[in-house]
Write a structure and sequence with these properties.
By secondary structure, the protein is an alpha/beta fold. The chain has eleven helices and 13 strands.
């Protein structure tokens, strides 16, 4: 049994991860600030499920608050920390940049300091496919340069990777960054496309389809994300003894530092995604075709070769299966 700190534990991915860790017998401390970026009721209902376990303890805390974070790490001795507490959303980062600075930069720095001073065995943290930014070479590989982000959200995730490398190098803190690709599934975020589309179609309202539907995403089902996170968490990052400073590999280092993509390795047209949803709902949606939004990219596609090679796991849930499971949850949760 491990003692694991999961930040963002009331969030979509954090909830599912904490639930899976508890099911396998780990002790979990879940941290969340329960902000109102979206309906806090959904977050509280996720938490209620976790708090049914005697191995779970919830801490209501903001990562950006330095002194309470210091006390948290002095109180507990964590075997691993998984950081899923971040201000999410590409478009929202244009409207409210300060929230990204506080949560994704100041908060992450506090987390790194806590891990450093309490000798945490492994820090795993959420990065994002957004870091690939202006890159157009497909599929996106962790061996590619990612120095051209297109939003502050993406820049904050790239900054997390750089900050983590610094601590891995200076203090031998094992750190692993996971670039998630368009996660969806039951208990998902209301600001994401699947949730918004489902709500609108059931209410007979039009759905906003950006870039006139010419978008491709590497949609990744939540259970696959959680399996990947746990496999990586159980395998602390090690120095790459073959790393060459004359030809540096961005995904590893001579410090205990790694970067992985976690995606389905199967990009899907947005219109096909919508068709899968319409089939699951048994209802067509009216589409409001709109131009590309600032900060968005037309396509994502994850190369997961390193993840497969190092953990033996490759996400593979089809969108038809994943969307059907989401719709079943949505109908049950909202009684529609």
């Amino acid at each position: 049994m491990a003692k694991v700190l999961v930040t963002g534990a009331a969030g979509f991915i954090g909830f599912h991860l904490a639930k899976k860790l508890l099911e396998r017998g780990d002790h979990v401390v879940g941290l969340d600030n329960l902000n109102d970026y979206y309906d806090p009721t959904l977050k509280k209902n996720r938490l209620a499920q976790l708090q049914a376990s005697e191995n779970y303890r919830f801490v209501h805390l903001d990562l950006a608050h330095h002194e309470p974070m210091r006390r948290l790490f002095s109180e507990f001795s964590f075997d691993a920390v998984v950081n899923l507490a971040a201000q999410a959303g590409v478009r929202y980062s244009i409207e409210n940049p300060d929230s990204y600075v506080q949560s994704n930069l100041v908060g992450f720095a506090n987390l790194l300091e806590g891990c450093r001073h309490s000798a945490v065995g492994h820090l795993v943290y959420a990065s994002s496919s957004s870091v690939y930014g202006a890159n157009t070479q497909m599929p996106f590989s962790v061996r590619q340069n990612v120095d051209h982000p297109l939003s502050l959200y993406a820049a904050s995730k790239k900054a997390n990777e750089l900050m983590a490398h610094t601590y891995a190098n200076l203090f031998a803190l094992p750190t692993t960054g996971l670039r998630f690709f368009t996660v969806y599934g039951p208990w998902g975020r209301p600001d994401m496309a699947l949730f918004k589309f489902t709500r609108a179609i059931l209410a007979n309202l039009p759905i906003d389809v950006y870039n006139h539907g010419h978008m491709r995403r590497d949609f990744t089902y939540i259970d696959d994300i959680v399996e990947g996170v746990i496999r990586v968490m159980d395998r602390p990052a090690q120095p790459n003894r073959q790393w060459d400073s004359n030809a540096p590999d961005p995904s590893s280092s001579n410090a205990p530092y790694r970067i992985y993509n976690i995606g389905n390795d199967h990009p899907v047209e947005l219109m096909r995604y919508i068709e899968a949803l319409e089939h699951a709902l048994g209802k067509k949606g009216e589409k409001n075709m709109l131009p590309m939004q600032p900060g968005d990219v037309p396509a994502t596609w994850a190369n997961v070769d390193d993840l497969v090679a190092d953990t033996g796991f490759k996400p593979q849930t089809s969108i038809e299966t994943g969307v059907e499971r989401f719709v079943a949850w949505y109908r049950d949760y909202y009684k529609v």
